[in-house]
Design goal:
12 helices; alpha/beta; Rossmann fold; seven-stranded mixed β-sheet
């Protein structure tokens, strides 16, 4: 294991990430151009049309060039396993960022339709560039908006992308940690989940989504069956994190 992975705080990009988190919350980007640089790195170094090579290039960039706040390689394997268990035809993702997790989902379940919601238009364009280079832009769609915008994005998902009762087989949540619970409840309110739908939530430990975790614990065995996966914050092995995988027991 490399020193930069074991001791991430030796990496200047990690310090810049910490300093840029306030900007990230507002804009969806760290502010030093790393997201755009990631897309350029992929286009310059990964084989066009090779999804595995594109994912590997993003991981290399995040490990060696500038840390990214996507799900990463270690937690990505947990996401892959959840996707295999769900065997979804329709996937909804909250938080596109640079498009990495959507590509992992598309790789694991090639027949599925993946729709990703991202509040930052600049990130949406970066993700689309990377998806096009990987050759999966025909299977992944990015919708710019937020679930908490009063229903506009939910209405758009319903009207333009066919989301309706029981449509969502897998929901991946990796955006504003303060919105995890409210956005899940909004989706539940639309009736888009069915019995057996799986919801995966990243970063429940760091930076943390305590309300979401408390809700899942309170509803354990009633509305949800949740497994808490102990893991690490993306692209390092020092800070511990939690990924929650929850099976919906309602209908």
């Amino acid at each position: 294991m490399s020193v930069t992975r074991r001791l991430p705080f030796l990496r200047p990009s990690v310090w810049r990430l910490g300093l840029g988190m306030r900007r990230f919350v507002k804009t969806g980007q760290i502010g030093d151009g790393r997201e755009e640089a990631c897309a350029a790195y992929v286009e310059a170094n990964a084989r066009r049309g090779d999804l595995d090579d594109v994912l590997a290039a993003v991981d290399t960039f995040a490990t060696q060039k500038a840390m990214l706040v996507n799900v990463g390689d270690e937690k990505g394997e947990l996401l892959d396993a959840a996707v295999r268990r769900a065997d979804p035809m329709v996937v909804l993702e909250l938080g596109t960022y640079c498009g990495y997790s959507a590509m992992r989902i598309a790789r694991t379940t090639p027949a599925a339709k993946v729709v990703s919601v991202e509040f930052a238009a600049a990130n949406a364009e970066i993700a689309r560039r990377i998806w096009a280079h990987a050759g999966v832009d025909d299977r992944i769609t990015c919708v710019v908006g937020t679930i908490g915008d009063g229903g506009a994005t939910l209405d758009a998902l319903a009207a333009r992308h066919g989301f309706d009762s029981g449509a969502v087989d897998l929901l991946f949540i990796d955006h504003d940690k303060n919105a995890y619970l409210s956005d899940l409840q909004a989706i539940l309110g639309r009736g888009w989940l069915h019995r057996g739908s799986i919801v995966v939530a990243d970063n429940v430990g760091v930076p943390g989504a305590p309300d979401y975790r408390r809700y899942m614990r309170e509803q354990q065995g009633q509305l949800w069956n949740t497994v808490e996966h102990k893991t690490h914050v993306e692209y390092q092995s020092l800070l511990r994190d939690l990924v929650l995988e929850s099976e919906y027991l309602g209908g």
